[in-house]
Structures are given as structure tokens and as C-alpha cells.
Amino acid sequence: MFADRAKIFIRSGKGGDGHVSFRRELYVPNGGPDGGDGGRGGDVIFEVDEGLNTLQDYRHRRKYAANDGEQGGKRRCHGADADDIVLKVPEGTVIKEAESGKVIADMSGDNKRQVVLKGGKGGLGNQHFATATMQIPKYAQPGQPSQELWVNLELKVIADVGLIGFPNVGKSTFLSRVTNARPKIANYHFTTLNPNLGVVDLDGAQGFVIADIPGLIEGASEGVGLGHEFLRHIERTKMMIHVVDAAGSEGRSPVEDVYKINAELEAYNPDIAKRPQVIAANKTDLIYSGDSEDPVKLLKEEFEPKGIRVFAISGATGDGISELLYYVSEQLGKLDRSPVIFEQEYFPENELIYENLPYTVEKEDDMYVVEGPKIEKMLGYTNLDSEKGFAFFQKFLKDSGILDELEEAGIQEGDTVRMYGLQFDYYK
């Protein structure tokens, strides 16, 4: 079965904790601190695999986690960094944060590999915290916490042109005639279940990629008949060939068919409905000359004044198809051919740091101690040696309410605040 959607849980690795230890060697009874740093946790990386065309593998396994970094050791030994976890996906896969639906990454175009969740940085060992006044620091920095998310994977095929229309209007037959694609063709009244891709090669003109979007039905924009699963594949196309059964062999009006499908496109995404269209009046080999009204003429009278060209074709005999393809190639030449890429809307590194994690503010002897998962996470993410990092640190203290709690606890200017391995004097 073709799988173009999946929901999975991903988790990066936690950074290894820094180590607390002191030199203990012969003739050095009171050596200084020598605790090593922790190793980096593994990243979660998504990578395009050209050999994949479905998300089937992610239907069977839902949870993916990178390993944690190794804890630092004695004698300044650095903990080992953890391996990254690389998740292979087909080109065209869009990764979204599950709850908000915001785009994290679009694995299309030049984006072949992207780090979605970064592993935690390793914590600093106690060797880094020795000062003139604190020569035997008995604390080390914890490793940066891991990041975790539920994400939705959506495969949106990459094609220049989408074939749209009701089921059984001859889209699959048309595709098989004009490209190297070999879709399953039968007289189904429901629909083809798989989007089929093919490449159109034209002598003396620019070729293009065409996708047979599974047949749409009324209510598709509301999810009826797997509508959303099919409509998402139209989102990247530059223009559409609207295939209709001109012979009315299903007992429907071809003019009404065009309006019904366009209404579904408008309801799903108005931007898609505005993209260029051309109508392929198919099955003309089944139209009898004795018919009272020429259906192709009716289509032309209805839609060509609206700027939509109508071509009479026969997928069975091939009549009229060449003229249609050269027209489509000409129109594509007037459009921007670069692929439609969905911009990133959700940035895990920024979003996840502000989770509602607990912290405590307490007074111990002559200093104020602030601790908790929220503080560990903030310190792990922030480079306090940089001006930008320190400004971020100050904003964090204010926005999280820590400064207010310190003042409620009675802190005065010049008092010392300790957050794990970090100590600073408080000034407004």
C-alpha cells in the first residue's frame, strides 16, 4: 500500500554530565579539580533517500531516539559523543510539528539533509569552575537535556503538472500514453489509490514531470473519500491538466464536472485553484456524430472565454495529445519552474526551551541558589561568554519570573546567585 503520511516520536540524545573529581597522585595529596566534560548527545537528522517513494517504513515503527552522550571522567577525560540517528525519507517529505501543524522542514529542492533535533551539549567538568576564591569546586555542569517531539510526515509529490478530474475519466490511460509511467488501469468507479509520476519528453521543447493525482470526488476538500490525502499532492504543481469525460460515458455533464472539481480545489486551498489550468476533453473517440450537442464545443464556449484552453483528445487513440503537451510545455516556460518549497514555521531549538519546567529559588548561607530542569536546559543552550548569549540569559531570568522570585526572597544588590556551576552578583 502507498503510504504518504505517518506520525512518529523523535528524541535527541541528552548531553553527558560533567564530572567532579580531584587529582590524587603520589606527592600530590591535594591536587586541583580534574573532572572531564560530558559528551554531546546524538542529533536527529532527516535525509533524502532517492530510492524511497513512500513513508511505509514509518507505519511500522513510531519511536526514534538518538543515544545520550557519555559522562565525563577523571583526569580531564572527555566523555564520548553519541552517534546521530539518521532517518531516511523520500524527496518531497514535509515534516510538521504534530500539535500545531507548523512546518519544521521540507525535504525538497536543495534540502537533502537537515538536523531537526539537536543533541544536548555535554556539561562542563569541575575543572572549569576553579577560581582564586573557589579552588575546590564540588559541582559540575549537567549535560544539556534532550529534545523530543511528535511530528507528522507528509509526502507531497514533486511534479510540474498535476492531472486532476473525477475517477474513471481516463487520467491513468493518458499518463501511460504520454510518459514512461505504467499505472494500473481498470474501469474503477472509486479511484486509483496511488499518485503516479511520469516524465514527458518532447522533441524540440522543454519536458516536464506530470503526476496523476488520484481521482477526486465531491466532498474531497472535507476529507470525503480520502480527499485530503489526495489533494496534498497538488500543492507543489505549477499548473493542472483537468481531464474530463467528454463523451459523458459515466452519465455526467463534463461542464459540471469541471466546476465541481474546481470548487473542491477552492475549498481546500484558494491559491491552488488560481493556478493555470488546461482542459483535456478525453474519450472523444466515443462521441457519436449524431449527438445533438458537441460536448467539446460546449466546453470551449464555457471555459475558453475564462482563459482556460480546451483540447479534444483521446487517451485510447492518442488523437490531440501532442498538441496539448506542447501547449502545456509552452505555458510552463512562462512560469517559475523552481520547486514549491514550504518555508520553516516551527523552530524546535527556540520553541522547546520555553517549556513549562519547574525550578526552585532558595537561600543557602550567604547566597541565593536557583535550580531545576528549567535552569539546566537554559544553561545548556546558552553561551554566556557572548554578548548575545548573555542578553538572552538576562531576558530569560526576567520572562520566566526568576528575578521576581529572587526579590521576593529578599535579595539585595551585590548578593551572590548560584545556578549550578554559574555564580554571579545580583544588580538591577
TrEMBL record:
CDD domains recorded: Obg
Sample GO molecular function, one term: GTPase activity
GO biological process, one term: ribosome biogenesis
Known EC number: 3.6.5.-
GO (cellular component) term, any one: cytoplasm
Localisation: Cytoplasm
InterPro entries: G_OBG, GTP-bd, GTP-bd_Obg/CgtA, GTP-bd_prot_GTP1/OBG_C_sf, GTP1-OBG_CS, GTP1_OBG_dom, GTP1_OBG_dom_sf, OBG_GTPase
UniProt: Mg(2+) binding residues: S172, T192
Coarse class of the protein's main subcellular location: cytoplasm
Pfam families reported in the protein's UniProt record: DUF1967, GTP1_OBG, MMR_HSR1
Coiled coil spans: none
Cofactor: Mg(2+)
Limits of the OCT domain: 346-428
Obg domain boundaries: 1-158
Key word Amino-acid biosynthesis present: no
Alphabetical keyword list: Cytoplasm, GTP-binding, Hydrolase, Magnesium, Metal-binding, Nucleotide-binding
Residue positions binding GTP: 165-172, 190-194, 212-215, 282-285, 314-316
EC category: hydrolase
Domain OBG-type G: 159-333
Subunit structure: Monomer.
Family assignment from sequence similarity: Belongs to the TRAFAC class OBG-HflX-like GTPase superfamily. OBG GTPase family.
HAMAP family associated with the record: GTPase_Obg
Protein's recorded name: GTPase Obg
Species of provenance: [Clostridium] hylemonae DSM 15053
